[in-house]
Amino acid sequence: MGMSIPQYLGQMDIRKGVVGLATGAGFIYLLYKAIRAGIKCQPPLYTASPICIARLAVERERHGRDSGELRRLLNSLEHKQDEYAKSMILHSITRCVYLLEAEASSCTTDDISLVGSMLDDKDNSVKIQALNTLKAFSGIRKFRLKIQEHTVKVLELISTIWDSELHVASLRLLNSLPLPDYVHPQLRRVMPALMEILQSEYILAQVQAIRLLSYLAQKNDLLYDILNCQVHSNFLNLFQSTQPGSLLFEVLVFAERLSEGRNSPHYRAVKWHYNEQSLHEALFGDESRLADRLLALVIHPEEEVQIQACRVIVSLQCSQDVGVRPSSCRPSHSYFNSGE
C-alpha cells in the first residue's frame, strides 16, 4: 500500500528516534561496563606504572592493611621469566620498596638473596634493575648487612663491564652502604677502574665514582693505593671551571681529603714512592698546576665551589708534621708563593 511523502517522512522520524534511543542506551550500557571493569581489574603482576604503585600505597595507608603487591612481585621473580619480564618485575619491586615502607620492612633476608642472585644474570638491564632494588632495600637498616654480602660481586661488575648505566647503579649502591674492611683487597683491585670512570665523560658516573673515592681516601690502608693510582696526563681538567658545578665540588672534596690524609702523622711516618703518572704527582708533585686551577675556582659563580676551593688551598698550605701542634701550619714548598 502506497504512502504519501509526508507519511513516509513521519515514519522515518519515528524510526530515527527509536534507533537514536537504542544507540544512546547501548552507549550508556557499554560505558557502564567499561567503568565497572576498570574498577574491578587488577594491575598486571609486574606493571611498571607509578600510578598503579602509588594507588597501592594510598590503599595501604587508607585501610591500614598489606596490599600484598610487593610479596606477589617477589614470588613472581622466583619463577622462570625472560629478561624483559625480570627487569620489569625488579623495577616494580624497587618502586614498592620506596612507597610501601611497611611491606618492604616485612620482607626477609631470603628476599634480598633472591634479588642479589639477579646480579649473575647475563643481561645487563637485569643487573642494573637488581642493583637499583638493592639500593632501595639498603634504606632499611636490618637489610644492610645482607646487602653487604654482595659488595664483592658489585665491585666485580664495575671492573669487568664497561657500561655507564651499570656503573652508576653499582656506585650508587656502594655509596649507600658502609663498606666492611674485608672488601679492601677487592677495592684495591678495582681502583684503576674507578679512576677510569672518574675520567670518563659521563657525569652521573663521575660524580658517583668521586664520592666513593672520597670515602675510601679516609681509610689509612687505602690512601696510598689511591694516590699511586695511574691517571691520564690531563687529569687536572677535572678542576676546570667549565666542568659542572656538582662535579667540581665533589672533585674538590676529594682533593681536600687526599691532602689531609697525606699530611697526617700516620701517613708521613712512611717514605712513600709514587710512579710518574700517579694521582699524587698530578695533584701534589713539583710539576703540578693544581694551584693555578684552584685560584681560578675561587671566583667560580657557585658559592659552594668557591668555598671548597678555599678549603683545599688552606689544606695544601697547612701541612702537619710529626711533633708539630695540630693548630699550627706552615706553607707548602711547591704550591703557593707569598705573592699569591
From TrEMBL:
Q: Which residues form the Armadillo repeat-containing domain?
A: 68-279
InterPro entries from the UniProt entry: ARM-like, ARM-rpt_dom, ARM-type_fold, Armc12
Q: Name one Pfam family in it.
A: Arm_2
Q: Which domain of life is it from?
A: Eukaryota
Q: Name one GO cellular component term.
A: nucleus
PANTHER family per UniProt: ARMADILLO REPEAT-CONTAINING PROTEIN 12
State the protein's name: Armadillo repeat-containing protein 12 isoform X2
Q: Which gene encodes it?
A: ARMC12
